[in-house]
Design goal:
The chain is mainly beta. It is 5% helix and 53% strand. The N and C termini lie far apart (41 Å).
């Protein structure tokens, strides 16, 4: 199971506020919780049902963004068998966009336990490098212009606000070496005015942009992505719901609870 680009997932809880500050780029520190279920499946899919929960925290320190993603998912297959996956993903991303680190703890009935991490560095106007604890002798080159996840989200929000409908980028999200670096093709739909179906408090917005992102490996030559994610994204970076499409089946997640988080006081 692939991670969700550090946009949907939980960890240590922050301090909630009556008024939540909006930081540069539009992303607002918050924690959000989601219920997950099967959205659709192809006839040849072995997955017949999905049950799960996910949570996502994005907060600020004085130098960067801290993101924590947790999810637990059960996949029910034909014949009534089931597999489970439990994942905890933490990352830190420099506000300057040139440094990123991550740690993953994952347990599943099909892969067992995995515990690994890594870090990446980018130099302005040149290529960068990524390193992984599970493959210490392997180094991944990052193309010039690579984005990290929060910076990528900020650019999508800026594009949406400017009325742009398409954005292509190379993003490094961490995870295992084969899946950490992807080409992302985003399509932003028109603004939709709609109230949220739960109380968002100070994080409320009058509507959202529908955003669809297709993820491709850098070596891909075909038109079919590895997976796609469809978001309902507010201007403050809050995701009301999302759908992850793996081709033969898709998972939907709907928000159930959300709270704003404190911002740091930096000298």
């Amino acid at each position: 199971m692939k991670h969700f680009s550090a946009l949907v997932v939980v960890g240590s809880l922050g301090v909630t506020l009556g008024v939540t500050p909006v930081l540069a780029g539009g992303v607002t520190p918050h924690q959000a919780f989601y219920e997950m279920h099967l959205d659709g499946r192809m006839q040849n899919s072995s997955v017949v049902n999905v049950l799960g929960k996910s949570a996502f925290i994005v907060e600020r320190d004085c130098d960067g963004w801290l993101s924590t993603e947790d999810y637990v998912i059960e996949f029910v297959t034909e014949g009534g068998n089931s597999d489970q996956i439990l994942s905890h993903f933490e990352s830190w991303e420099a506000v300057s966009g040139d440094k990123y680190s991550f740690d993953v703890i994952e347990e599943s009935t099909f892969y067992g336990r995995k515990d690994y991490g890594g870090f990446a560095n980018l130099a302005a106007g040149s290529m960068g490098n990524a390193f992984f604890s599970m493959a210490p002798d392997s180094e991944l080159e990052l193309p010039e212009g690579t984005f990290f996840p929060v910076q990528h989200m900020q650019r999508i929000l800026e594009a949406a606000d400017a009325g742009k409908t398409m954005m292509a980028a190379t993003i490094f999200t961490g995870g295992e070496p084969d899946d950490a670096l992807m080409k992302a093709s985003a399509v932003v739909g028109g603004w939709q005015e709609a109230e949220a179906n739960i109380d968002f408090g100070s994080l409320s917005a009058a509507g959202y942009w529908p955003v669809q992102i297709a993820y491709f490996k850098l070596s891909a030559t075909g038109s079919e992505p590895e997976y796609e994610i469809k978001f309902l994204m507010q201007p403050n970076g809050v995701i009301r719901s999302y759908i992850i499409d793996y081709g033969d089946f898709s998972i939907a997640a709907d928000i159930t609870q959300i709270e704003g988080l404190d911002a740091p006081v930096c000298g």
